[in-house]
Amino acid sequence: MRLKEKTALITGGNSGIGLATAKLFVAEGARVVITGRNRQALEAAAKELGPNGLALAADATDIAASEAAIKQGAEKFGKLDIVFANAGIAGGTPLGSATPEVFEQVIGTNLTGVFFTVQSALPYLNDNASIILNGSVISVLGIPGYSAYGAAKAGVRAMARIMASELSPRGIRVNVVAPGAIHTPMWGPATATPEAEKAFEKRIALSTPLGRLGETDHVAKTVLFLASDDSAHVQGQEIFVDGGAVASPSGAPIYRG
Ligand code: NDP
Fold this sequence. Notes:
Layout: E1 7-11, H1 16-27, E2 31-36, H2 39-49, E3 53-57, H3 63-77, E4 80-85, H4 100-121, E5 125-134, H5 138-141, H6 147-167, E6 173-179, H7 194-206, H8 216-227, E7 238-241
Parallel strand pairs: 1-2, 1-4, 2-3, 4-5, 5-6, 6-7
Bound molecules: NADPH dihydro-nicotinamide-adenine-dinucleotide phosphate (NDP).
């Protein structure tokens, strides 16, 4: 068990990557506090996690609500050793038709929400804790239609390095996990029907050197590494979990003869 006696907070822990990570953490011996907005999904996740899971409704864009949830979690399970700031939304902002409302919502959730999750957690963090921020390949890939999302995720990688400087005196590590396309509900209509899902998987596979869509466990296992003492000397880094999409795009099936 790699997280025995550890307490973790995972924002957006009732779905997708966050839920997969919460389940893996519990299996590795941790007590896990998850947050999200959808109460039904929170209840379902709490059942899956069992007695070492605590599911709390809190909107990551509502600083007071986040603070209250973190306080409640720490009171139940003890001070935090791990924070996975994972809550995020997609949301397109294509040049020409983006609205200020969507732009602000994407930045508010994926950037501002991440900063204040970490700030709110600070008083409840043990020294030598590990903070992992969820980034994205979109911070560097220039995928059309995602200016706000890409800017937020690029901001996350910048913030991680700054936070790593600020928190190193306490031995607290801050790193980023940056997924490529992963099989989660986030893709909405793109994967809503079996046909759409198949077409989506094919498109991603063609442009990914390892030739497939990523699974939530690919990311969860990387987050486990960053959360655990296995990465004790890894500070301020970003690990891409993207099948090679960022590092070696020319290896993708679409370029093979
Ligand atoms: P999901 O839609 O499955 O999960 C998103 C999670 O974030 C949900 O638990 C959701 O819960 C929560 N969430 C969203 N907004 C808020 C909010 N305002 N307050 C609290 N919780 C919130 O998608 P993923 O698992 O894919 O996404 C998780 C993270 O991974 C995101 O940061 C995303 O940007 C990142 N990512 C995902 C990729 C992918 O291909 N799937 C690729 C790269 C990065 P609720 O709706 O109940 O609030």
